[in-house]
Amino acid sequence: MKGKAFPKALYYTVASFTVVIVLWQVAIMVWRPGDFLLPSPLAVLRALVAWVVDGTLALGLRDSLGRFVVGYSAAVAVGVAFGLLLGLCNSLFRYAYPLIQLVRPIAPVA
């Protein structure tokens, strides 16, 4: 049973991407917005290949991942320090608790 579910899921994935790309190309052909506003799928593919070949994509990924690691590390350091401080100082916890409850409903992914 599981063997047949994967190809069906793969079919839906490929079909959905194909539909989006076809609609994208149709929109380009109908409205002709220009490459600056909305490039065609082929123009995007060409740019991607050019970025991979000349190394621009790798440099951009390196820079972005570096910023992510620095930001995440800073957030962990501040969060752990703040958590320890709140855990050790009960009066500070009572002051901060309403603010913590205010932001608690925000999804952790956000």
TrEMBL record:
GO terms for cellular component: plasma membrane. It is a multi-pass membrane protein. Keywords: Cell membrane, Membrane, Transmembrane, Transmembrane helix, Transport. The chain crosses the membrane at residues 9-31, 68-93. It is found in: Cell membrane. PANTHER family: ABC TRANSPORTER PERMEASE PROTEIN MJ0413-RELATED, ALKANE SULFONATE ABC TRANSPORTER-RELATED, MEMBRANE SUBUNIT. This is ABC transporter permease. It comes from Tannerella sp. oral taxon BU063 isolate Cell 1/3.
